[in-house]
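Notebook entry, structure prediction.
Reason for the run: the old model in the group folder had no record of what sequence produced it. Starting over properly, with the input documented here first.
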Amino acid sequence: MANLFGRSPTILVVAGEESGDMRAASLVEEIKRSSPGIRFIGVGGERLRRAGVETFADINQLAVIGFTEVIKHFPRIKTVFALCVKKIRDEKPDAVLLVDYPGFNLRLAKKAKALGTKVLYYVSPQVWAWKEYRLKTIKRVVDRMMVLFPFEKEYYAKKNFRADFVGHPLLDELKPTRSREETLKDLGLLTEKTTLALLPGSRRNEIDRILPEMAGAVRLLKKSAPHLQIVLLKARNLPREMFLKHLTPNDGITITENYTNTLNICDLAIVASGTATLETAVLQKPLVVVYKTSALSAFLIRLLLRIPFVSLVNIISGRKIVEELLQKDCTAERIAKETARILEDAAYRDTMKRDLKTLRDLLGETGASRRAAVVVLEELKK
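New structure, fully documented this time:
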């Protein structure tokens, strides 16, 4: 399709972590289908680079979470932030496209707005759950907000702010390309065994806190469930050694980056809270949600959290349908006990599967990236 603009606009896109990189890349690809002449520069990872974005900083420089972790890595984050501001001044992009990562991106939105640049935001900060004070900033500096869940559009409407519900891109992204038998063979796993997936997160500090407990749970489970085979889904942006240091050869855990095909063939999963919980739910795999951060970060989160759940699965459902094992409850023993319940209690497992099917239906139709691209192009024409 021909370029829709008389000149070549520039968009500066910022994705600060693995899931944002994936969301942003799909959106960039859809925009380019309609207007291939648009130039993209920004902060991202492998997927954004494959989509044709000229990255001047990598997500590995930003992918930390929690108050104390951000403080520890603040100099690095500050350097990337300053570089983003410099690029906005020097390149004078037609718009900045900010994807999730609100602690960084809302500050950048203020700077961009002050410099006269249009601000588009994709994947809303969870102001409906915590840090609602961010809403004032959003209303002041964001020109267009694109949200993934219907209730987010309703939330913003009640706050007198326009938000476009585009649907969730997971419905497009989670499309297996291999059969169960092919994937198991690729991984060297057996068809007759029960497959448990471990998803310990995509940030370095998450792996170091959560994976040791997951690995401990696996060792306990294998004592009573020798029919289990374990596969760990590794984030592409992290080195394999970061995972191996928490495992032993006797654990018998297969590590892979073949994300969707592998998750699709698993029978159940232990998942670090985050986007991965929703990915697991969309594929209707029974799961246990776990999370552990620093004591100070956990204390601050409890002070600010306005809802009773932390996992997207329970938040979107509006009730508890999966177990959340957080902080002091995120232990090898507790994780093993809840996983064993899923394995052994057929009624509990089947109820969870039905609830996950209902959740999948709440997410709407496929085509989220395409609808978001329409919004971005509309704004560029103004």
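Summary: Residues 10-169+367-381 form a domain with the Rossmann fold fold (CATH 3.40.50.2000).
The old model has been moved to the deprecated folder.
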